[in-house]
Amino acid sequence: MVDLKTQYQQLKPEIDQAIQEVIDSTAFIGGPAVNRFKESLQQYLGAKHVIPCANGTDALQIALMAAGLQPGDEVIVPAFTYVATAEVIALLQLKPVMVDADPHTFNLTAEIFEAAITPRTPAVLPVHLFGQSCDMGPIMQVAEKHGIWVIEDNAQAIGADYTYPDGRTVKTGTIGHIGCTSFYPSKNLGAYGDGGAMYTNDDALAAKLHMIANHGQVRRYYHDLVGCNSRLDGIQAAILDVKLKHLDRYAAQRHQAAAYYDNAFAGIAGLRTPARQHNSTHVFHQYTLLVDGGRRDALAEYLQTKSIPTMIYYPLPLYDQEAFKPFTDITFLPVTDHLCKGVISLPMHTELTEEQLAYISDGVASFF
Fold it and tell me: What fold characterizes domain 247-367?
C-alpha cells in the first residue's frame, strides 16, 4: 500500500545528515530541529502558530482540552472515520454525536452538521477524509451562527487547498479554530515513528495548547493547568523538515497516479472512482473506490490472488464498534453503512511506477 523504503532511498543523504545532526547535538527533546520544523510548517501552511506533539490522537485530545468543554457536552463527529477522532471525545467524558457522510465526497457537510446541533453542542470535528477538504465555508458559517468550536482533523489531507467563493485559497487545517494532524509514517507527510501537530491563528489559544501539551506549565515545575506529556522528538522533527520540502511534489505524484486509475476505471459498471470536492484540491492520502452490488469483498479476494494489496477504510461504522455503544444512541446511518460495505482502497503512494499502476488497474478491470 505504501513504499517507504524506496522513498527513503531517494532522500537518504538529506535524511541521514538531518538525523546525524540531532544525534551530534544531543537535543533529543525540543531543541533546534523541532523549532526549525515548526517554523517551516507554519510558513508552508500559512498558520500563525504550529504546536508539535507526540501523535495525531494527542493533537485531537489536546485541542478538545483547550476548548474547555465540560463532561457530557456533545461533540459532532463523522461515523465514517478512523477511531481516533471519536476516541478522544469519549476519553474526555464528552458525548460523540455521530453523523452521516455526504454520499459523493464521504465528508461532513454543513447541512449534516447543523441538523445534529442541540443546546449541548459546543464543538464539531470535521474530518478531511482521504485527502480532500470538507466544504469548510458553509461549515464555518453554521459554527459561527451557533457559537461552536471547529477542530479540523487534517491527518489525511495535509497540503490540500480549500478555495472560498471569492477566490481566496487556504490550507486545510487552518480554517477552523484548531487544526490537527498526524505524522504517522504512512501519512503524506510521515515521520519514521509517531508524531503530530496542532495549528491555530489565535495567540492565546496557541499558548494554551502548548501549555497543555507540556504538563500544563509555562515555567518549569509551575503548573497552571492539568495537562499531558506530548512531545515531538528532535529526530522525527528533523526527518519531517526534510520531507516537508518535497510534500507538494509528493501530492503531484499522487495526483498523477489517481488520474491513471481514473482513466483505467472509467466506464466500468458497478465501480465508482473518488469524487472531487469542487473547491478543494485532493492530495490522495487514499485512493478509495466504491463497489456496488455487494462485490467488494470478492474483489479484495480476487486481487489478493494477484498479489495486489488492498485495504478497507473503514469496515465498521463507529457506532457499531463495541467501544462506542455506551456513548452513542445512533444505531444506523444509511450512507455510512453503505460506504462501510462498499469501499476499497488501492495502493497509493509517491513511488508507484507506470508498470505497477498498469498491473493494478488491469487486475481490477479483469474482475469486472
Answer: Aspartate Aminotransferase, domain 1 (3.90.1150)
